[in-house]
Amino acid sequence: MSSFFEMASMSSISSLLVSSTKQKTAISLSLIGALALVLSGCATTQALTPEQCQSSNWQDVGYADGLQGRSGAYFGQYANQCASVVGATPNRVLWEQGRQQGLKSYCTELNAYKLGREGYDWQPVCPLEGIEKLEEAYSQGRYYYIRQRDLDYLRSPYPFGYGGRFGYSPFYSPFGYGW
Asked: pLDDT digits over 42-93, tens only?
């Protein structure tokens, strides 16, 4: 009899260890994800070096910004970054010409669909003519993205998290009810 109880207690101890390990792994993955988001936010607003302020081809910089769907207000960041560099003034006219060329590639139905399907936000920088087609393409891609994300979530082995009442996470209320 004592061996049965010893095995039962060993089983409960091992299940507690596995549960503890899963919780620690989930917390670690959450922290890594949060760190990745913070760092990706820093990477999108890259600081210019003094050499870049003095020798940049502002039309090329504007073209790259247009491809990413940046608004005209983004130029202010370059002006602020280069304000302390003597003899370096970003050329707004050249930058805007380049940005307009880049927006021609950004403001296409294919790009709008691709942005939606990959889960990115659509930036309101395109001309108003033909905007309905662009918004429709984006919403179709976004619908596909959300549908696929939800299916992946439901296919996961623990779609409602670990623990809690009825196997649900303590932060999840099934069907919107707080029971």
From this structure: 344 567 787 888 788 999 999 999 999 999 999 999 888 888 877 778 889 9
Measured at the alpha carbon of residue 140, what is the angle toward residues 139 and 142, in degrees to the nearest 5? 60
166 or 67: which carries more pLDDT confidence?
Answer: 67
The Cα–Cα gap between 179 and 173 comes to 7
